[in-house]
Design goal:
The protein starts with a helix and ends with a helix. With 556 residues, it is an alpha/beta fold. α3 crosses α4, α3 packs across α7 and α8 crosses α9. The protein is globular, with a radius of gyration of 23 Å. It contains 16 helices and 25 strands. Helices cover 29% and strands 22% of the residues.
C-alpha cells in the first residue's frame, strides 16, 4: 500500500503560493459578482470591441433582465437557454438568471434545429435568449414544439459605436415577431431589483452540454460550488488580480469560456474583453488595444494567431499568462507561438464535468515532454484534487503505466441532468471516469495519451493518434494535423493523416510521409496523407477527428 505522499507526488511541485487545499470564499456565484460590484461599481467589467460596460452597468442591466423574466413566470430552478455568441448580453443574462435562482443553459450558437430542440427538450427550458439572426434562421423553427414560453432576442450591434466595425458589415437589426427585445426590457424595467432568493452552493448554476462525441450530449450540472471553486483555481493558480485583463478567446457557451473567462473575471474582478466570435486579426487587435494579460483557449486559436499575417503585425507583449487545453498540444506549436509573440502557452486539462480545469501547469514553470512518446504534459492536479490512473480491471496503476484518468475533487459535477444511469456509470461515488487515457510520471506530472476510442489498431499494433500528430506538427509546413485509423483490407486499419499547411508553404503528401517515417517506428508513421485547406473543427477550435473518420468510411 503506497503512502498518501506517494499517491500524490505532485504536491512536491506546489510552491508556497500554491497550498494543496483551499476553501470556497463564496456560497454561490452571485455573491462573487456582487462582491465585485461593491469593490467599485465604476470599474470596467466588459470591453466589447471598442465599447466598455462597467460593473455597475452590468449589475443594473442584469437586475432589469431578472425582473422582466420574473414578471413572465421564470423562477428559482427554471432553465433559460443562452443561445448567443461572445456578446455582453451573455454575461448580463447569466448574472440576471442567478439573481432569480434560475439555471443558465449554455447552447452552442452553431447548433441547428434538431440539435437545439434536443437541448431545449432535455433541459425543459422555459426561456430562450438569442441573437435576432439565430432566432430567424434556426430557433423560430423549433421553439413552438418545446417548453419555451419566453423568447428574448438581441443584436450583436448593441453597445458598439456607430458606424459599426467592418466585422458587422452584413448585420441588420430586425426584431422577430413574438419575441421580446433585450434592451427594451432593460429600459422598461430599469431601476427595479428582483426579490432576493436563497441560493446554496449545491444549487445548479449552469447546465453545460457535453459535445456528444461518445453519444447524445448530456447536460452536466455545474453547481455554484463548482463555479466558485474553479474561478478561484484560475485566480490563485495564475496569480490573477484586478490589474489583469482577460481575453475572451473561447466561446462563452463552452465550459472554458464560462469559467476561465466569465467566472474568474467576475471574481477577481478584472475586465473581460469580448470580440463577438474568433477572428485572429480581430483578436490580435483587441489584445493590443486593451493590453490583455491572460487568456485560456484551444490550441487552434493560438495556431491561427501565429499564422495570421495581420495578427503577426500586432504587439501582443502584454499577454503574459496564456493557457490552452481541450485538445492535444504539440511542443512545436508552443515553441512557435513563444518565438513569435514571447508568451509561453501553459498546458491545462479539464472537462465539462470538471467545470474547466482539474490539471494546470504551475505559473513560471514549463510542462515537461515525455521522452518516450514526445507528449507534452497537461500539468499537475489543482487544489483539493485527487487523480488516479486505473487499469482495465479498475486497479490503480503505478507511475508510467497507461490507463484511464479518474478525477475526484470539488470541481467535479454531481451528475448529468435527469440522467441517473449515465451519472452512475461516469461518476460513480463522485469520481469522474474521464474516458481519457494517460499516465503520471514519478514526479506527479500527468500526460494525456488520447481518447480510448481513438486508438488505431494497425495489424495488431496499437497507435495513439496524438503521438503521430506531434511529429506532424514539427514539420515546418504543417499548420494543423489530425490522424485517424482508415479502413484497410490487409491491416484492418492503417494510419492516415489529414493536414493543412501554413500560408505560403508547400509540401507534398509523399514528403510528409517520408518526414514521419524518419522519426517514428515503422508501424506508427502515416501510410496516407491528405492535404486539406482547413480541418473540420468545433466552435471551440477542437479538430473533429470523428468527421474525418466518417468521411473516410464513406469513401471506403
Amino acid at each position: 500500500m503506497r503512502t498518501h505522499d506517494e499517491q500524490r507526488p505532485w504536491l512536491g511541485l506546489y510552491d508556497d503560493r500554491l497550498p494543496p487545499d483551499i476553501e470556497p470564499e463564496y456560497a454561490n456565484a452571485l455573491d462573487m459578482f456582487e462582491a465585485a460590484v461593491r469593490s467599485g461599481a465604476e470599474r470596467p467589467c466588459i470591453h466589447y470591441l471598442d465599447a466598455t460596460l462597467s460593473l455597475g452597468r452590468v449589475a443594473a442591466l442584469s437586475d432589469a433582465f431578472a425582473v422582466a423574466l420574473a414578471s413572465r413566470g421564470i423562477a428559482k430552478g427554471d432553465r433559460v437557454a443562452l443561445y448567443l455568441q461572445n456578446v455582453p448580453q451573455f454575461v448580463i443574462a447569466m448574472v440576471g438568471l442567478w439573481k432569480l435562482g434560475a439555471i443558465a443553459v449554455a447552447a452552442n450558437p452553431m447548433l441547428r434545429e434538431k440539435e437545439l430542440k434536443g437541448i431545449l427538450d432535455d433541459s425543459g427550458a422555459k426561456g430562450l435568449v438569442t441573437l435576432e439572426a439565430l432566432y430567424r434562421d434556426v430557433a423560430c423553427k423549433v421553439v413552438g414544439t418545446t417548453s419555451v414560453t419566453t423568447v428574448v432576442t438581441t443584436s450583436e450591434l448593441e453597445f458598439v459605436a456607430d458606424p459599426p466595425p467592418a466585422l458587422f458589415a452584413e448585420v441588420k437589426r430586425e426584431r422577430p415577431e413574438d419575441t421580446l427585445d433585450f434592451m427594451v426590457l432593460a429600459s422598461d424595467y430599469a431601476g427595479r431589483k428582483p426579490e432576493p432568493v436563497a441560493l446554496g452552493p449545491d444549487d445548479v448554476a449552469i447546465l453545460c452540454y457535453t459535445s456528444g462525441t461518445t453519444g447524445p450530449s448530456k447536460g452536466a450540472m455545474n453547481t455554484h460550488r463548482n463555479v466558485v471553486f474553479n474561478a478561484m483555481t484560475y485566480r490563485d493558480w495564475l496569480a490573477l488580480d484586478e490589474t489583469d485583463v482577460c481575453l475572451g478567446i473561447a466561446p462563452l457557451f463552452h465550459i472554458t469560456g464560462l469559467i476561465g473567462h466569465i467566472a474568474v473575471s467576475l471574481l477577481t474582478p478584472m475586465p473581460l474583453v469580448l470580440g463577438y466570435r474568433f477572428n485572429a486579426a480581430v483578436v490580435a487587435e483587441l489584445i493590443e488595444r486593451w493590453k490583455t494579460t491572460y487568456t485560456v483557449g484551444a490550441i487552434t486559436a493560438f495556431i491561427a494567431l501565429t499564422n495570421d499575417e495581420e495578427a503577426r503585425k500586432r504587439d501582443l507583449s502584454s499577454l503574459r499568462k496564456a493557457c490552452s487545453g481541450g485538445a492535444p498540444i504539440a511542443p512545436a506549436t508552443v515553441k512557435a507561438f513563444e518565438d513569435q509573440f514571447g508568451a509561453y502557452i501553459m498546458p491545462v486539462y479539464g472537462l465539462t464535468e470538471t467545470t474547466s480545469p482539474c490539471h494546470m501547469t504551475p505559473l513560471h514553470r514549463r510542462a515537461p515532454v515525455d521522452p518516450q512518446s514526445g507528449a507534452l504534459s497537461v500539468g499537475v492536479p489543482t487544489f483539493n484534487t485527487d487523480v488516479k490512473v486505473l487499469g482495465e480491471q479498475g486497479q490503480e496503476l503505478a507511475p508510467g503505466e497507461v490507463g484511464e484518468i479518474v478525477v475526484s475533487g470539488p470541481q467535479v459535477v454531481p451528475g448529468y441532468w435527469r440522467k441517473p444511469e449515465e451519472t452512475a456509470h461516469a461518476i460513480p461515488g463522485g469520481a469522474l471516469h474521464t474516458g481519457d487515457v494517460g499516465f503520471m510520471d514519478k514526479d506527479g506530472w500527468f500526460y494525456v495519451v488520447d481518447r480510448r476510442k481513438d486508438q488505431i489498431n494497425a495489424a495488431g499494433y496499437k497507435v495513439w493518434p496524438r503521438e503521430v500528430e506531434d511529429v506532424l506538427y514539427s514539420h515546418e509546413a504543417v499548420r494543423e494535423a489530425a490522424v485517424i485509423g482508415a479502413p484497410d483490407e490487409y491491416r484492418g486499419e492503417t494510419v492516415k493523416a489529414f493536414v493543412s499547411l501554413k500560408p505560403g508553404m508547400s509540401a507534398a503528401p509523399d514528403e510528409i510521409i517520408a518526414f514521419c517515417r524518419e522519426r517514428m517506428a515503422a508501424y506508427k508513421y502515416p501510410r496516407k496523407v491528405e492535404i486539406l485547406a482547413e480541418l473540420p473543427k468545433t466552435t471551440t477550435g477542437k479538430i473533429l477527428r470523428r468527421t474525418l473518420k466518417d468521411r473516410e468510411r464513406q469513401g471506403a
